[in-house]
Fold these 4 entries.
Entry 1:
Amino acid sequence: MLAAERRDHLLDLLAREGKIVAKDVATALGISEDSVRRDLRDLASEGLCQRVYGGALPASPAVADYHARQTVAPDGKRKVASVAAGLVRPGGALILDGGTTALAVVDALPRDLTCTVITHSPTIASALLDHPQAEVFLLGGRIFKHSAVACGAAAVEAAQNVSADLCFLGVTGVHPEAGLTTGDAEEAAMKRALAARAADTYVLASSEKLGTASRFRVLPWEEIDGLITDAALHDPVIEQLTVRGIEVLAAD
């Protein structure tokens, strides 16, 4: 099988199975595992897969820059945001992650809602200026421009001094095996710090992120209280998570 044919085969397998096991592919094609791993390295360099131990998983489409991500699945993000906003109670305190879905949550919150919002995103804080009854606490640090959020040691330390009823967390990858992932190590650490300061943590994930993975794990499944998504309940990833006891809040 030519290299181009192997490439097409791997991409087809990734689309159908949701993962690639290098050993199984090598056996099926009668080639060495090293050849499969080289092919996967090439695909990963083009952003077509995320390499993991023993093979590869689908790469998240949410690795584009902040402005580009604003055009990805806007309807799905609005649906997710609507469900999330409904969980925020008057007088409550909310930790709100950065990103385009979190920005949609701000838009979904009632303008007259009395609440406290803690965020490490200048973009989120700015959007909340249109909510006169919302008290806003902005956590500072080095700005990670990809997601327009503060990260690093200073931001993590600031997060350790707050607490809230809810935390809405964004991720780039949602996969039953790989867990909840994102593309930057410091951003992943910041997300963990934020989640640790809330009584309940929900992950915001529009359907294009399901079944995909990025390089750095944010949290294992057992450390969140639920997943809010616009994916259908019969989606294979959702079915696997439900079997594992993960609460899934469907956004119709």
Entry 2:
Amino acid sequence: MSPRRSAIDAQATRSKIIEAAVAMASKEGLEGVTIGRLALELKMSKAGILGHFGTKESLQLATFDAAVESMRHQVPDKVGALPAGRDRLLRLCDAWISYLEAQQAAAGGCLLIAAAAEFEGRPGAVRTAVLSASNGWHALLTGEIQAAIETGELPADTDVTQLVFELNGVALSANQAIQLHRDRAAGERARRAVHKIIPDSEETGARPTRTPTRRSRAQVRGR
């Protein structure tokens, strides 16, 4: 076998392991992902899995990173080409809620929210990764809100930090309603809450001051 073919096969195997780990972690948490269980499920040896990751922590980090990348693709990437402003902020929140709704059927829960609760009090590399992802999401929301202020679609005196806090609260509440209570109306309740939190210009008296600009895909994806 050529070195190139061998590298392609190794990457395919690694991707298969991570995919199984993400599905497992979404249902049982990152601590529920073990080398032994993955080996059994994938019909691989424990040594074969360890050969790709080395340690359980490295496997957890790779699993979490894969979940972050999936969320980026399904949420910020969907709105990155739109002009900056209130509409893009609303569409970002809508994509976020749709992502949470999809997690129940596809994987059994939002791994990112579960990992935050699971590792918030534990020191280590996984907590650092979870905190970094959370900070990146907050920074993205902050940038979108500030852009809507700059276009005049939100009031100039908008408390950005408070608005980010409230939007995150809506998402956490929606996730619990979806996962724990199996509330089929949770997504729509969350969308109504978002529209109350982010008022339109007629309600606030704000007026657009310039044509909204487009932000690059790289800016929207930034952590």
Entry 3:
Amino acid sequence: MIDLNADLGEGFGRWTLTDDDALLSVVTSANVACGFHAGDPSIMRRVCELAAARGVRIGAQVSYRDLAGFGRRSMDVPPGELAAEVAYQIGALEVFARAAGSRVSYVKPHGALYNRTVHDAGQAAAVVAGVRLAAGEAGLPVLGLPGSLLLAAARDAGLEAVPEAFADRAYTPLGTLVPRGGPGAVLDDPDAVVGRAVRMAAEGTVAASDGSAVAVAARSLCLHGDTPGAAGLARRVREALEGAGVRVEAFA
């Protein structure tokens, strides 16, 4: 069983990047940009309405405040400030999710914040504090890299920690993502992406950049919405997973 998630709502004003309509016909969870790396109120509202109409789970994709850098520049944000900014983003998306008859069901950091919380305990704790601030005692599940300090902080705070894998990103032998900008960091061969997705879901492993097998005990599989041809690739991945006997559905 595997959840398929994609980053959606990544636009601003007249600029659009992700094919939200097409991807929402394939994925089971939508990571919606909340305005800090991409997204604006109109886009957030539209994506929530589309997701709710199609029964797709809505997640808040929170980020550093970095529209110019698309949230992919690491920033030294004080923990209290970061917690408040995470809560702010979740709260903004919750308004549109509820208006569409749904709700925010989980939280996933984006870009530099995601990678920073793999190894930075202070930033990881701040993200979790922001989730608690926005969601209260009920909390929200948090998506992150297996073995990351983010998932450890979420568990320590009593939140559900959901391990995630990436079919279209290269892995180091340590199980972390090869930094963007590095050679081969993003896979552009559709056949390779489909094959990796099936292997991850069915076997729980992936080939690292040095050819070694790395364990990836993932409950959710991410397909980047800004990849050229993302919707068609996502459809191929889902068909291949189901063809291999993997049930595709949102995590409980």
Entry 4:
Amino acid sequence: MDGEAAPVRINAGQVAGGHFRYYDYVMAAFVAILLLSNVLGAGKVAQVWLPFWETWWPFGAGILFFPLSYVLGDVLTEVYGYARARRVIWAGFVATLFMAFMAWVVVALPPAPDWTNQAAYETIFGQVPRIVFASVIAFWAGEFVNSFVLAKMKLWTRGRHLWSRTIGSTFAGQGVDSLIFYPLAFWGAEGWTNDLVLKVLVTQWVLKVSWEVLLTPVTYAVVGFLKRREGVDVYDEDTDFTPFRTRV
């Protein structure tokens, strides 16, 4: 699909197998942000000063950038339709599994005698299998819920009120993500009380949705640009919403 004219409303089935100018770039950005958020952000607990309460509040550093993957997920579904978003979700899922496998292999390799950074390397890249499993499952389920809700809401709203779709789908998708990840990863774990798991779960959910709200102008700009350049506005009127396929 190519062009600069105003986007034309079209059913997703009419562009099955077609080529889009910017789709591959959005896919690459989605997978890159997903992997980098897990590598660079997941292992650090940062803190922010809350002046109203006059206290420091801890948070996982990955939350600064991981929500961008949900923004791009919204963009993919809104611009290209559920089927192409589904393919990108699977690409991210497989990439995350490979990243976890690669980290496990590299950390497990015996270090050379004169290389003294093994302990630090294990601290940064060593992964707890339970947390990896929870993260991958939560990502997969949350992203598909996000994409499904947005595609359905686009039909219900007849393409109006984009903000309601992006925020509503993120509320649902991030809710599923958090409800799966934190209990699977930390319920009953050493140092984690049940109350703490619930507190972090709700806090992260609220922060992620808040990020989506703050980034709404950016989402509007990106969606508008891509629709104009691609020349179409895709609606999932006859789409098969099963997550278990990758064909577009």
